[in-house]
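Quick entry between incubations.
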Amino acid sequence: MDPQDQQLVIKIVLLVGVLIATALLTRSSSGARHQAIRRVLLVLFAVATAAVIIAPQLLSGLAQLMGVGRGTDLLLYGLAVAFVCFLATYYGRMRMLNRQITELTRALALAEGRREGTS
Amino acid sequence: MPNEDVAILVPVYNEARVLGDVIAGLVGHVGHVVCVDDGSTDSSAEAARHAGATVLRHATNLGQGAALQTAIEHALTLPGVCYLVTFDADGQHQLSDALAMVDLARAEDLGVVFGSRFLDERTKAGFLKKLVLKTAVWVTNQSTGMRLTDAHNGLRVIRVDAARAVHLTQNRMAHASEIVLQLGRTNLPWREYPVHVLYTDYSRAKGQSLLNAINILFELTFR
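Done. Structure below.
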C-alpha cells in the first residue's frame, strides 16, 4: 500500500468514531439500553487497556495494520475521538438535566400560583 | 371592566427599580396581571406583589423563555381569561398599545397579534440595534416561514386557543423566535400592530447587544 492508501484506514476509523459521537449527540439518551451499551464499551475499553499494558507491541501492531506509523499516534487519535464522544454524551446529559430543572422549577411556581388563587 | 378577560404576563428578572411603576400602571386596567419572577436576587417579587400583581417565583434563574412559559401555563388555568398579553418588565411597552392590540384581536377574530417597532417611525433605535433586530427578524422569518417585520418584540397578544399550542423549550433569548414558530403552526389568523417601544436609559443598559444576537443565532441553530 502506498502511504495515501494506508492513511485511508485510520481516516475511516476516526470518522466513524466522530459519526458515533454525533449520533449520540442527536439521539435522546435515556433508558437501560443506553446504559448497557456504555457498560459494554467500558468493559471493552478495560480489556483493551489491560492487553496493551501487558503486551505494548499489540498497539504498535494494530497501528501498523491501520496504516498509522506508531502505537502512540494511534493512542492519540483514539483519545481525541474518545474525548469528542465524552463531550457528546456529557452535553446530552446536561440538556436533560436542564430540562428537568426547568420542569421542576415551573411545577413549584405553578403550585404557588394555585395556592394564591385559592387563598 | 371591559378587559376583564385579559391577563397581562410579565416575566421579570432583577427589575426592582422600575417594576413597581410598570405593574401599578397595569393593575386595574385588565382582569389579571401575572408576574413570573425568574429567580431575581433583588426585591422584584415584593415590588410586583405590592403593586398588586400575582407573583409566581422560579426558585432559580432559568431565562425569559422559561418564565414566559410558566406565565402562560398559569394564565391558562385562570377562569374566564380569553386573551394573554406578554409584556416586558422594563417599562418599554405601553399599556395603550397592548389594549389596542387586544381590541384588534377581538374586532378581527385574530389568534395572535404581534407588536412591531418597525411598522411606523415612532420607535427610535440606533443603527447597531436596528441591524441586530433586523438580523433576528430575518433568521426568524427563515425558520418560521412567516413574514414579520419585528421578531424580538416582547409585546404580543395571544388568544387562549393559540396559547395552548405554545410549549417553549428555549429557555434563553431564542424563545422569541420559537414562540413565533409555534404560534404560526396553529394556522390561526394573525396580524402585526405598530407599537411604540420606549428606549429609556434603563432599558438601553439591559437591552440586546450584538453579542446577544450571536447567542440567539447559536441557540436557534444548535437546539
